[in-house]
């Protein structure tokens, strides 16, 4: 397919407004197959403004007189306004953006064309073989799966039962097992009608089932949409804001996800039990729980490399359907079908953990923001497709660049790292009381509040830390030439 | 002490109100003349000053003993279980007596002795000198002068003696105006902005009723206007809601009629009164203190309490002041009803936005001395120091500290002091350990001879200055000269570190602040070392004609390698002296957190059948 068919008007004169904090930008607007470009006039700064079309979540057009206005709401929650000369041009450009931003085909997406300097194809795609988190000393294991297919006939499966028996047998003598079902007992039971269900007590001796219902799917997406709506309103009264914050229930979902992960982690660490986590498919809330539990218990998953490996293993390779879940972010008018901010929920929980243990994660808020942005729209191939199988078919690993190699470039490090990191060998038990959880302003209010004071403060922290390293490492400055005096 | 019948009770349990599984510490409870002390079996001490106790409650007897719940003014809540009801009853009665004193002379400050001699004590009181402060602002000058009209508190009992007024305002005008203002609190200077030549003035409401006028008052306002050469009009900001101000007219009070005063621009800013604030905070604490709180409960409680809305209104009013001064070079006159609550909040916050000096440790002390203590904020009544009218108690000053905290959150580099400083000041407005906040106005303080009989808090805070410093402070940064806070709703948050100060488990387990502060301190130290060493080397080079440095010399000047970074992080550190707020705890405990009611299931034994099969499973292995 040719992108040019979808581009009716290649370019137009336009002015771009990027929110109250940034100055407007004037120049020539240009639509290409994957990008929206704004090139300022020759006398202005040579900087090109570039937007990946894939990151457009919703588009709104308005015409008045002989100009038009396009409002772009992006998947990273940014809102952009383009004032364009010419009604025809406005409508054409809007139509092109609409068509190009929602192309279904994976292999014509931008990651298959993106060839940045300094990166080689195939780099950083290979991590250690997938392996659940395994505590080598204590021999407790954390497992994940999907629901058993019990069905209305209450079927059993000898192999499945044997497998879980073997898990306990392989653990320390006397170990017990807990199955954390991320659905309510009611829902799990109902799943039998459609062929699913949950483990029967009698069939899995030594294992005990706990139900911890976590929100997923459409309700989670709606919670996200409502929160973002509330965050976009600068004029609202305090009462309105607080009631919307309570009403959207986002922080309640964060609390539930974190406490379930803590429960699983506590089972391993304190009770010496083996833990199996599953919901229905084992590709959404299950992953939130297993990945967070590892972060809580395992210091190695809190390093820069360890965290990337965790995301790669517990999310990408575990088959979280990124393409379906992140097809739209919070602004789309379409009724959500498969969209759900499960991955964002995980990132938010990690952020809360980082706030409560500000020295114990090697990566900073910047890393979490980058992962959110790239999961929804990215020039890299890492979050493409819905499963390993699909990625193989599309040859993602050989034909696109890995996000990890992009992030691990030296110039990115300052944004992504936590300057105060000190390895902490202990488990991190966060407080999940509502007073201890905070709205992640850095994400939800990223584009609506002036970032200067907090960014400047962060810069100062970096400076203090680097000074510290400098002075610590410095010897009295006697250079060789001085000695020869 | 006639109030103390039981001085020591053993086997008392202390419950943590937020931990799971009713984890309790067992220990011994001691009752002293000034404190309630609990020493648990780890020998950890919890000291509670009697003056900090807001309420004591004896709950119904349980099987384990008699519960005693103590709520403190610094937002500590303790829940003891006393084994014998008789002991519990004695302690309860003693605390009721000890926490409410009838006379000032029975307050802790009059018996507190930090082992200083008289001259040291006097020097402490002289540390903050308001005359010096007005000089720093640039008054007296050609437009403003010191008035002796209130020399013997003749005109206004609740004002200080030293008052600054426009040079052209004669004594008869001042006297006339004071008779037309509630409690005689006529318009005087609160802050003078030197470069804009604009003033922030304060007063109480005029006794205007529906139509009364006072020429002297009109003249005084005009004089304030004229004292500002940069602008011919001035703002009059009534900090009350319009409706309240209107209601006051019926009682012969009210607000300025724009028609009677030349060149004033009058406006209301709608801050609620002390009664609304009291019940608002009460409601907030009820919500945030309840066990098993859901996220929804917390936010709807925050909303229904209205507390953050009030904080937003106070800060919003301060922004109005700062804007008038900076963008229009206009002077502003601020009042509420009596001019000692909302007026103190708004004037002090306005000055804080305008003048970086007030954002330093010492400057903040000066600000409190000036706009709160000297201008007669009724600390003793508002904090309930003595057994008095509970309707006079209100968290006006706490609310002011919270506004300052919100500013420190929005401008992390603009303040020399940190949160611990604000918390410590809050601790002491209620402690009655120092004389500064005792009494309701300067006249009363003089009569109590506080400067002879008690100590000032400020030198003790300055002694611990390092603890209260913000490592990110940028004193020279131009962008922080005047603060322009954004008062959009989502910038206001629940101040957990104040209202849950003592609920250890709710706080972050590591403190970035301590780490950065330590690093910063060490950087400075090391830089000095380097400089020292470099100069030593230079000296050596000059001395040694042949210019060869021996190896020994080089070794001797090498600084000790600091191994602070890692060792520091796994140590518990206390920010506040004498209490256990805001600590750094690296190792957290899952039992401190109620992750779920299911957590208890972990500890339940499995049914017998299961464990049998389980045993089989293990044997097959």
From TrEMBL, chain A:
PROSITE patterns: PPASE_MYOTUBULARIN (PS51339). SUPFAM superfamilies: (Phosphotyrosine protein) phosphatases II (SSF52799), PH domain-like (SSF50729). GO terms for biological process: negative regulation of autophagy; phosphatidylinositol dephosphorylation. It holds the Pfam family Myotub-related. One of its GO terms (cellular component) is cytoplasm. One of its GO terms (molecular function) is protein phosphatase binding. It comes from the Eukaryota. InterPro entries: Myotubularin (IPR030564), Myotubularin-like_Pase_dom (IPR010569), PH-like_dom_sf (IPR011993), Prot-tyrosine_phosphatase-like (IPR029021). Residues 133-444 form the Myotubularin phosphatase domain. Belongs to the protein-tyrosine phosphatase family. Non-receptor class myotubularin subfamily. This is Myotubularin-related protein 9-like isoform X3.
Automatic annotation (TrEMBL), chain B:
PROSITE patterns: PPASE_MYOTUBULARIN (PS51339), TYR_PHOSPHATASE_1 (PS00383). The keyword Zinc does not apply. InterPro entries: MTMR6_PH-GRAM, Myotubularin, Myotubularin-like_Pase_dom, PH-GRAM_MTMR6-9, PH-like_dom_sf, Prot-tyrosine_phosphatase-like, Tyr_Pase_AS, Tyr_Pase_cat. Residues 509-543 form a coiled coil. The active site is at 336 (phosphocysteine intermediate). GO terms for cellular component: cytoplasm; nuclear envelope. The keyword Hydrolase applies. Residues 124-499 form the Myotubularin phosphatase domain. Substrate binds at residues 273-274, 336-342. Pfam families: Myotub-related, PH-GRAM_MTMR6-like. GO terms for molecular function: phosphatidylinositol-3,5-bisphosphate phosphatase activity; phosphatidylinositol-3-phosphate phosphatase activity. Keywords: Coiled coil, Hydrolase, Lipid metabolism. One of its GO terms (biological process) is phosphatidylinositol dephosphorylation. Belongs to the protein-tyrosine phosphatase family. Non-receptor class myotubularin subfamily. This is Myotubularin-related protein 6 isoform X1. The gene is MTMR6.
């Amino acid at each position: 397919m040719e992108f040019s068919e979808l581009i009716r008007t290649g370019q137009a004169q336009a002015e771009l407004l990027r929110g109250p904090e940034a100055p407007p930008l004037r120049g020539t607007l240009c639509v290409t197959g994957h990008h929206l470009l704004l090139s300022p006039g020759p006398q202005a700064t040579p900087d090109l403004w570039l937007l990946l079309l894939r990151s457009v979540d919703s588009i709104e057009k308005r015409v008045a007189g002989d100009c038009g206005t396009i409002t772009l709401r992006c998947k990273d929650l940014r809102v952009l306004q383009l004032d364009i000369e010419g009604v025809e041009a406005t409508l054409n450009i809007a139509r092109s953006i609409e068509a190009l931003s929602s192309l279904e085909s994976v292999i014509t997406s931008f990651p298959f064309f993106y060839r940045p300097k300094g990166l080689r194809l195939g780099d950083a795609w290979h991590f250690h073989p997938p392996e659940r988190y395994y505590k080598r000393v204590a021999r407790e294991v954390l497992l994940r799966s999907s629901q058993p297919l019990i069905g209305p006939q209450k079927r059993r499966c000898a192999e499945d039962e044997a497998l879980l028996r073997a898990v306990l047998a392989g653990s320390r003598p006397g170990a017990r097992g807990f199955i954390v079902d991320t659905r309510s007992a009611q829902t799990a039971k109902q799943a039998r009608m459609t062929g699913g269900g949950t483990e029967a007590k009698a069939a899995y001796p030594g294992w005990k089932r706990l139900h911890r219902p976590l929100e997923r799917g459409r309700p989670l997406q709606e919670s996200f949409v409502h929160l973002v709506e509330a965050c976009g309103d600068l004029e609202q009264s305090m009462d309105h804001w607080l009631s919307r914050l309570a009403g959207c229930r986002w922080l309640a979902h964060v609390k539930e996800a974190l406490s379930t992960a803590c429960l699983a982690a506590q089972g391993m660490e304190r009770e010496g039990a083996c833990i199996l986590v599953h919901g229905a498919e084992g590709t959404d809330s299950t992953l939130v729980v297993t990945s967070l539990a590892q972060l809580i218990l395992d210091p190695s998953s809190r390093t820069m490399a360890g965290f990337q490996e965790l995301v790669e293993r517990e999310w990408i390779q575990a088959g979280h359907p990124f393409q379906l879940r992140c097809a739209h972010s919070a602004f789309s008018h379409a009724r959500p079908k498969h969209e759900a901010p499960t991955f964002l929920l995980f990132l938010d929980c990690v952020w809360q953990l980082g706030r409560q243990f500000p020295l114990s994660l090697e990566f900073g808020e910047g890393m979490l923001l980058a992962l959110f942005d790239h999961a929804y729209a990215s020039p890299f191939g890492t979050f493409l497709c819905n499963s390993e199988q699909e990625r193989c078919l599309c040859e993602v690993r050989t034909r696109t660049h890995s996000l990890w190699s992009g992030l691990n470039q030296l110039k990115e490090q300052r944004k992504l790292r936590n300057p105060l990191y000190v390895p902490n060998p202990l488990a991190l038990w966060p407080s999940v009381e509502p007073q201890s959880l905070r709205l992640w302003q850095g994400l939800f209010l990223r584009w609506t509040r002036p970032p200067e004071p907090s960014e400047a403060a962060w810069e100062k922290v970096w400076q203090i830390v680097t000074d510290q390293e400098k002075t610590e490492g410095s010897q009295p400055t006697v250079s060789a030439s001085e000695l020869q005096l | 002490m006639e109030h103390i019948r039981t001085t020591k009770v053993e086997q008392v349990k202390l419950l943590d109100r937020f931990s799971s599984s009713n984890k309790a510490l067992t220990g011994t409870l001691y009752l002293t003349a000034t404190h309630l002390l609990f020493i648990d079996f780890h020998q950890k001490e919890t000291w509670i000053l009697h003056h900090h106790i807001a309420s004591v409650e004896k709950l119904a007897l349980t099987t384990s003993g008699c519960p005693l719940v103590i709520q403190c003014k610094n937002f500590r809540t303790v829940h003891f279980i006393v084994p014998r009801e008789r002991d519990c009853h004695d302690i309860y009665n003693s605390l009721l007596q000890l926490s409410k004193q009838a006379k000032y002379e029975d307050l802790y400050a009059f018996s507190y002795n930090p082992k200083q001699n008289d001259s040291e004590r006097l020097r402490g009181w002289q540390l903050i000198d308001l005359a010096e402060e007005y000089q720093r602002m640039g008054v007296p000058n050609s437009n403003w002068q010191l008035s002796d009209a209130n020399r013997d508190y003749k005109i206004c009992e609740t004002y200080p003696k030293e008052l600054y007024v426009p040079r052209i305002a004669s004594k008869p005008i001042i006297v006339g105006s004071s008779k037309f203002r509630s409690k005689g609190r006529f318009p005087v200077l609160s802050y003078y902005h030197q470069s804009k030549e604009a003033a922030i003035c304060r007063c109480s409401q005029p006794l205007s009723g529906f139509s009364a006028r006072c020429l002297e008052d009109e003249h005084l306002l005009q004089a304030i206007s004229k004292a500002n050469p940069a602008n011919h009009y001035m703002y009059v900001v009534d900090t009350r809601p319009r409706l309240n101000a209107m209601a006051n007219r019926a009682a012969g009070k009210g607000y300025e009629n724009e028609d009677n005063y030349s060149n004033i621009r009058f406006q209301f800013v709608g801050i609620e009164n002390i009664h609304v604030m009291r019940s608002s905070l009460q409601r907030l604490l009820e919500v945030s203190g309840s066990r098993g709180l859901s996220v929804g409960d917390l936010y709807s409680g925050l909303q229904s309490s209205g507390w953050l809305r009030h904080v937003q209104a106070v800060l919003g009013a301060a922004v109005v002041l700062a804007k008038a001064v900076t963008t229009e070079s206009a002077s502003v006159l601020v009042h509420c009803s009596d001019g000692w609550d909302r007026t103190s909040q708004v004037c002090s916050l306005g000055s804080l936005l305008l003048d970086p000096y007030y954002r330093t440790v010492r400057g903040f002390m000066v600000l409190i001395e000036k706009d709160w203590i000297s201008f007669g904020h009724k600390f003793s009544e508002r904090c309930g120091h003595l057994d008095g009218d509970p309707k006079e108690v209100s968290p006006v000053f706490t609310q002011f500290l919270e506004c300052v905290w919100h500013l420190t959150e929005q401008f992390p580099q603009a303040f020399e002091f940190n949160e611990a400083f604000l918390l410590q000041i809050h601790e002491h407005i209620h402690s009655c350990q120092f004389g500064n906040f005792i009494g309701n106005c300067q006249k009363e303080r003089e009569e109590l001879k506080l400067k002879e009989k008690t100590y000032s808090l400020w030198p003790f805070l300055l002694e611990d200055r390092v603890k209260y410093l913000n490592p990110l402070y940028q004193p020279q940064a131009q962008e922080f000269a005047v603060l322009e806070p954004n008062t959009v709703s989502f910038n206001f948050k629940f101040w957990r570190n104040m209202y849950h100060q003592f609920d250890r488990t709710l706080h972050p387990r590591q403190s970035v602040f301590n780490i950065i502060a330590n690093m910063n301190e060490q950087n400075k130290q090391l830089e000095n070392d380097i400089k020292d060493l470099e100069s030593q080397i230079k000296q050596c080079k000059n001395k040694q004609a042949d210019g060869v440095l021996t190896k020994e010399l080089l070794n001797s000047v090498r600084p000790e390698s600091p191994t602070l970074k890692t060792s520091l992080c796994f140590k518990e550190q206390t920010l506040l002296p004498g209490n256990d707020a805001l600590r750094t705890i690296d190792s957290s405990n899952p039992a401190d957190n109620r992750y779920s009611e299911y957590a208890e299931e972990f500890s339940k034994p499995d049914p017998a059948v299961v464990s049998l099969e389980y045993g089989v499973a293990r044997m097959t292995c």
